Amino acid sequence: MSETIGTRLIHAWNAFRARDETNNDYYVPEVRGTVYSSNPSRPTFRSGNEKTIITAVYNKIAMDVAAYNIQHIQLDKNSRYLKTVDDSLNQCLTVSANKDQTGRTMIQDLVISMFDEGSVALVPVETSFDPKISTSYDIFSLRVGRIIDFYPDYVRVELYNDIIGCKQQYIMPKSICAIIENPLYAVMNEPNSTLKRLTQKLGMLDSVDAHNSAGKLDLIIQLPYTVRSEAIQKRAESRVKDLETQLSTNKYGIAYADGTEKITQLNRPIESNLLVQIQYLSELFYNQLGISEDVFSGKASEQILRNYYDRTIEPIVVAIIEEMNRKFLTKTARTQGHTIQGFRDMFRLVPANELASVADVLSRNAILTPNEIRGIMGYKPSTESEADELRNKNMPIEDSRTYKTTGGKEQNEKQV
C-alpha cells in the first residue's frame, strides 16, 4: 500500500506526544514488577573476585569467546559447510537470546558465570512445545542460570524471570539444559587451585594496605621513667591518651611533649614477601591459562595471539558448542547434517599492509571471489560479472571451447 499524507497522519506515532484517548492526557503505560537501578540480569561475581585483577582476565576471555560467530548450520554429506539454518535457535545465537540480551551478550554472560561458578546451565525458557513431553521443539529464548544443586536427572538452577523481574530457582531436567563445565576448572575453580591461592594472597595484600593506610602515626614514646609497676603503666597510658587528645582536637594536629620525653616515628612498616608471592602466582596463573601479559597490553605478536586462541579460547568455544549440539539438536537433526559451529574472522589478525597480499593469494588460488574479499574488507560488491567468478584472474581465457565425443573418442575443437 502506497503511503499518502492522509495515512501518515492517521498512523503516525511520536513517543513524546503519545496521549491516552480516554482522558486526553499524556499516556504513561502501567509498569509492573520489581524496579532496579541497574540491570538485574547481569552476572554477579562471588568470593570477592570483583575486587581483584581476576575480573579483568574473566572479561577479556569472555569478550574473545563472544567474538566467535556461533551459528546453527547444515553440513553436506562430506561434513562441509552447506548453509546457515535460519531458524529460531539461530536467531537466539546471533540476534536476540532473550528480551534483555543479544546473542553475543548471552555468550559473554555464559563464559563469565562459568568461570566464576565452575559450571553453568544454558536453559531454554521459551519453546514451541513442552520439552518434557516432546523432544522436537523450537527454542525462542535462552537464559544463563547458576546451578544450585545437582540431582541424578535434574538440576536446580537460579534464573532471572523476565516476567516478574527477579531471580528465582527452578528444577530443570538435564536433558533440556546445556550444562557447560569450565575446561579450565582445575586452574580456576578447584579449592587449592592457582587462582584460589592468588585470590587469597591478593586479599591479604589488601588487608595489609588497609592497615598501613588507616591514619595511624606509628609513634614510640620513650618516657623518662621506667614502667614496671602497675601504677606507672597507668600513668604512661594516661600520657599516651593525652597526646591522642591533643592531636585529634588541634586544628593542625599539633601536640606538645616534655623535654625529657623522646618520640620516635616508624617511617616504614615491616616488610613481607606477599608482593613477591603474588607476582609468582600471577605469572604461574597466566602460563597455565596460556595467556601472555602482552595480550592484555595490546603488544602481543601474531604468534602469541595464535597460541592464546588455540590454547585458551578454542577449548572454551568447543565446550559450549558441543553441549549445545548434544542438548538443543535432536538425533534426527544431527543425522541430517545439522550442527552448531563457531567461526572466527581470521582477517582480524592480518595487518593492513599485508591484507592486499593475502587477498591476492586467496583470489589467485580460487579460494575466494573478489566480491567475497570486498565484503570482508567492508566494501560493497562490484557489479562486474567477473567479480563473482571463482578462478585465477592471471590465467588467460579462451574465447570458446567445445567438446564433442565421436565413436568413444573425445575431440577438442578450439574456435579463435
Summarize the structure.
This protein is α+β, with helices and mostly antiparallel strands. The protein folds into two domains: 35-208 and 293-349, no CATH class; 352-416, no CATH class.
What does this structure look like?
This protein has helices at 5-11, 54-66, 88-94, 103-117, 185-188, 194-212, 230-249, 274-289, 293-297, 302-328, 331-335, 352-364, 370-377; strands at residues 19-20, 25-26, 69-75, 81-84, 119-127, 139-150, 154-161, 166-173, 178-181, 219-222, 262-265, 338-343, 400-406, 409-415. It is elongated and about 105 Å long. It is 38% helix and 20% strand. The protein is built from 13 helices and 14 strands. Helix 2 (54-66) runs antiparallel to helix 4 (103-117). Strand 3 (69-75) and strand 4 (81-84) form a beta hairpin. By secondary structure, it is of the alpha+beta class. The two termini are 54 Å apart. The protein folds into two domains: 35-208 and 293-349, no CATH class; 352-416, no CATH class. The strands form five sheets. Strands 8-7-6-5-9 form a five-stranded antiparallel sheet. Strands 4-3-12 form a three-stranded antiparallel sheet.
